[in-house]
Amino acid sequence: MTAPPKDVQRALGVLQEVYGTLVERLTEAVIQDEDTLRDSQYSFAYQEVEDRFGPRIINLSHLINALQNAAGRPTVEETRVETVIASAENLAEEVNRRLRTLRGSSLRSLDVQKLEDGNFLVLLVMTRTVYARPGGR
After folding, report:
1. Distance between CA atoms of 92 and 120, rounded to whole angstroms?
2. Is the per-residue pLDDT at 62 higher than 80?
3. What DSSP letter does each residue of the chain carry, written as one string?
């Protein structure tokens, strides 16, 4: 999995909010039909509540559990080197274009060298935190 940990935490927060809202709606529905539900647990009112909320709450629980497990996994720092070759006039534009494609990564170092043909070679050392793959792969 290559999703950054902060994105996993953000997704987890969103699903937990949705879960909370769904539980609030379930609570309201149960309170609204409290007498009917108490009289007969096999009534249409119970089946309606179960059909409306049961599958969604169960599925959300599974999704939240998956993200919580992912959030607990160890992370490693992945490093990659990107190269840009451009003329002096286009250098900034080309470097910025490359950096935009690498969102979620951090720039660790930048090295610029002038080539014999007058162009410039830029080495971008990028890192990002990713979840460690099981088994050290």
Report:
1. 11
2. yes
3. ----HHHHHHHHHHHHHHHHHHHHHHHHHHHHTHHHHHH-TTSHHHHHHHHHHHHHHHHHHHHHHHHHHHHTS-EEEEEEEEEEEE-TTTHHHHHHHHHHHTTT-EEEEEEEEE-TTS-EEEEEEEEEEEEPPGGG-
Which range of 3-7, 51-55, 74-78 scores highest in mean pLDDT? It is 51-55
In angstroms, the CA 2 to CA 129 distance is 8
Euclidean distance between CA atoms 110 and 82, whole angstroms: 10
Q: Cα(44)–Cα(30) distance, rounded to whole angstroms?
A: 13
The two three-digit tokens of residue 119, written as one number: 């162009």
Model pLDDT, residue 137: 47
pLDDT tens, position by position, 8-55: 889 989 999 999 999 999 999 999 988 888 777 667 887 888 899 999
Query: Length of the chain in residues, anyone?
Result: 137
